[in-house]
């Protein structure tokens, strides 16, 4: 991976932190074609600037960027998100009660549901509320709770308590990352707790995540889903990770992004 000078190389190192998580000095040295001592100097400067963190034993570990806001993420992988949302909308039947997570891809699904008739939608996300608040054919239930401004989502004990009073035909979840080993990656433990509860209350569980999130682990909090859930992503997803997910019992749907 070529870089234009030390500054460009350091920017690329930080970028890698958001897409692959941890990396060793040796791996970075091979990636950028420089000596290990050069990488150590880069990491020391990035750590001093607050962009990376030091691990035990003196090794350097990359950490993720601060969580991006929902507004920042809305324009990413637009075509893939639209294709995933259309596939998901086609699964929903008249008369069903569905649960929508927060997030930009699930928000795109909410937009697809504006033409629905006789549908009940419960949600933890402001995007879905805004999309469906004026739709005559959709009854909207807001779970409430504490608002997380970055994700524009409700979390916490009030949202959890509301979930205990409902069940759902389908739930559609978002994620910051998806791996076969650990499940869904999120930035906040309150999100992981709520998503686990959401999955338990639905007959069918779908995770909507575009290909850049597959195999990604930008944070250190995880959601463990019950067996038999479905991942919907686009065909650019890492194929090794797709095979690992399928081997773990996950149904993986690959859609074509226009």
What's the SSE blueprint?
Blueprint: H1 5-20, H2 25-32, H3 36-48, E1 53-54, E2 60-61, H4 70-74, H5 78-91, E3 97-100, H6 104-112, E4 119-123, H7 126-132, E5 138-142, E6 146-148, E7 153-155, H8 157-163, E8 168-173, E9 177-179, E10 183-186, H9 189-200, E11 202-208, E12 221-223, E13 230-234, H10 239-247, E14 251-255
Parallel strand pairs: 3-4, 3-8, 4-5, 8-11, 11-13, 13-14
Antiparallel strand pairs: 1-2, 6-7, 9-10, 10-12
Helix pairs in contact: 2-3, 5-6, 6-7
Protein name: DeoR family transcriptional regulator
Keywords: Transcription, Transcription regulation
Organism: Streptomyces bingchenggensis (strain BCW-1)
Description:
The protein has 258 residues and is of the alpha/beta class. It has 2 domains: 5-61, Winged helix-like DNA-binding domain superfamily/Winged helix DNA-binding domain (Arc Repressor Mutant, subunit A), CATH 1.10.10.10; 70-255, 3-Layer(aba) Sandwich (Rossmann fold), CATH 3.40.50.1360. The protein has 10 helices and 14 strands. It has helices spanning 5-20, 25-32, 36-48, 70-74, 78-91, 104-112, 126-132, 157-163, 189-200, 239-247; strands at residues 53-54, 60-61, 97-100, 119-123, 138-142, 146-148, 153-155, 168-173, 177-179, 183-186, 202-208, 221-223, 230-234, 251-255. The strands form 4 sheets. Strands 5-4-3-8-11-13-14 form a 7-stranded parallel beta sheet, sandwiched between helices. A 3-stranded antiparallel beta sheet has the order 9-10-12. A two-stranded antiparallel sheet has the order 1-2. A hairpin with a 5-residue loop joins strand 1 and strand 2 (60-61). Helix 2 crosses helix 3 (36-48) and helix 6 packs parallel to helix 7 (126-132). It is elongated and about 65 Å long.
């Amino acid at each position: 991976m070529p870089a234009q000078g030390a500054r460009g190389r350091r920017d690329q190192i930080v970028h890698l932190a958001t897409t692959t998580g941890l990396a060793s000095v040796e791996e970075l040295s091979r990636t950028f074609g420089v000596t290990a001592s050069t990488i150590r100097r880069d990491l020391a400067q990035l750590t001093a600037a607050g962009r990376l963190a030091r691990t035990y034993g003196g090794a350097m570990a990359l950490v993720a960027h601060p969580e991006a806001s929902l507004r920042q993420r809305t324009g990413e992988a637009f075509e893939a998100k639209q294709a995933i949302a259309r596939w998901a909308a086609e699964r929903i039947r008249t008369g069903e009660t569905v649960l929508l997570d927060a997030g930009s891809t699930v928000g795109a699904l909410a937009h697809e549901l504006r033409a629905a008739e006789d549908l009940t939608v419960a949600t933890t996300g402001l995007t879905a509320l805004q999309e469906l608040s004026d739709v005559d054919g959709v009854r909207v239930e807001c779970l409430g709770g504490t608002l997380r401004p970055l994700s524009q989502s409700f979390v916490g004990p009030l949202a959890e308590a509301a979930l205990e009073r409902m069940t759902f035909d389908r739930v559609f979840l978002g994620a910051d990352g998806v791996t076969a080993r650990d499940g869904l990656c999120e930035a906040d433990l309150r999100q992981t707790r709520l998503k686990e509860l959401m999955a338990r209350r639905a007959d069918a569980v779908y995770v909507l995540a575009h290909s850049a999130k597959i195999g990604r682990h930008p944070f250190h909090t995880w959601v463990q889903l019950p067996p038999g859930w479905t991942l919907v992503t686009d065909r650019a997803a890492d194929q090794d990770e797709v095979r690992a997910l399928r081997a773990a019992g996950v149904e993986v749907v690959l859609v074509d992004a226009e």
